[in-house]
Amino acid sequence: MATAPIEPPQRLVSSLSGDPESPAGKWLAALPTLVQQQLETWDLTLERVHAPGGRSSLLALVRQKDGTPAALKFPAPGHLHEAEALEIWDGWGAVRLLRTDGTTGALLLERLHGAVSLRSLPEAKAFLEAAGTVRRLWVQPDPQHPFDTLAGRTKEAVESLRWAGPLVPTAAPLIDEAQELRESLPATSDEHFLLHGAFRQGKVLAGDRTPWLAIGPTPVVGERAYDLAALVLDRFEDLMAGSGAATVARRRVAKLADSLEVDRDRLRAWTLYRAVDAGIRESAAGDRRHGELLLEFAAWL
C-alpha cells in the first residue's frame, strides 16, 4: 500500500491548473486523494507515478495483490469512453483493460514498456508497424455505441478554427478549405468504424504479450482515413527538413492509403483538415513556429 503523498506530474499540473474552479481544476486538486483511495480499493501497491506523463491523465505504475505489474490511469474530465473502446478491442491491437471504476473513472491496464514506442524505430519500420496496429483497431461498433461521431467531434473543432483563424491571417485560404472539408467529408462517407481518434507512433508502445499495442485512445466512430491522417502527420518535421519534401509528403499519403485500402483523395483531405486544425491550435497556444510548419505541410497536399 502507498502511504506517502502522491504528487501529480508537473506537465499535468501545468496543463490543467488554469482555473481551480473548473471541472479539470477541481479534479486535479482531488487527484492525490482519488489515487490513494483507488490503491486501497483495488489492493494495489504503488511503485511510482509515471513522469513526465501526459497532459490529460495521470498514470501510476503499480503491483496487483499477486505481484503482477499493471498501470493505474486516471483520465482528466472530458476524456470519455476510453474504457468502452478498450473493452471492445479486448487487447487486440491495444493495451488490455483489467479493471475499471465507473465512479472515479480509474482504469487498471496491463503494464507496457512506456519508454519504448514506435518512434524508437527507423521511419520505414515504424510506419509499417503503425499501419499493422491501427488496422486491428478498426472494428464495427454496436449500433447503440456511446462514442462521438466524426461529424460531432469536428463540428466543435471547426468552431475553434473560426475563432483562432484571424490570429494567422495568411492561412485564410487553408482555413476556408479545411472548413469546407469538415462539412463535406462526414456527409459523404458510409464508413462507421471505431477509430482510435488520436493515433500516432508515440501512442504505440512495446508489450510483452505482443510486440506493439496502442494506448490512450480518444475513440470516435467514422471513416478510417481520419485515423490514418494523424499518422501521415507523424514526424512531419523530419520530412520537411529533407529535399523534395512536398513530393515526399504526397507520396506518404499515397503509400499509406494504398497499404490500408483507403481512398487516396479522402486521406489527403482529412490530412489537410487535421494539419490546419493542429496548426491553428498550435499558433493560438503560442507556438507559432510549429503551427506555421503544420500549415505549410497542409499547403503541400
Describe the structure.
This protein is an alpha+beta fold and 301 residues long. It folds into two domains: 10-111, Phosphorylase Kinase, domain 1 (2-Layer Sandwich), CATH 3.30.200.20; 116-300, Aminoglycoside phosphotransferase (APH), C-terminal lobe (Aminoglycoside 3'-phosphotransferase, Chain: A, domain 2), CATH 3.90.1200. Helix content is 48%, strand content 15%. It holds the Pfam family APH_6_hur. Keywords: Kinase, Transferase.
Keywords:
301 residues; alpha+beta; Phosphorylase Kinase, domain 1; Aminoglycoside 3'-phosphotransferase, Chain: A, domain 2; 2 domains; five-stranded antiparallel sheet; 48% helix; globular; Kinase-like_dom_sf; kinase; phosphotransferase activity, alcohol group as acceptor; NH2Glyco/OHUrea_AB-resist_kin; transferase
Q: Supply the helix-strand structural class.
A: alpha+beta
Global shape: globular
- Sheet with the most strands: spatial strand order: 1-2-3-5-4
Series of secondary-structure elements, N-terminal to C-terminal: HHEEEHEEEHEHHEEEEHHHHH
The total tally of domains equals: 2
Largest sheet: 5 strands, antiparallel
| CATH-level-4 superfamily name of the largest domain | Aminoglycoside phosphotransferase (APH), C-terminal lobe
Could you tell me the CATH topology label of the largest domain. Answer: Aminoglycoside 3'-phosphotransferase, Chain: A, domain 2
- Tell me the quaternary state: single chain
Helix content estimate: 40-55%
Strand content: 15-25%
Q: Which spans of ≥5 residues are poorly predicted at pLDDT below 50? A: none
The number of helical runs is 11
Q: Determine the mean pLDDT.
A: 92
Work out the radius of gyration: 20 Å
Ends distance? 53 Å
Could you say what the CATH architecture of the largest domain is?
A: Alpha-Beta Complex
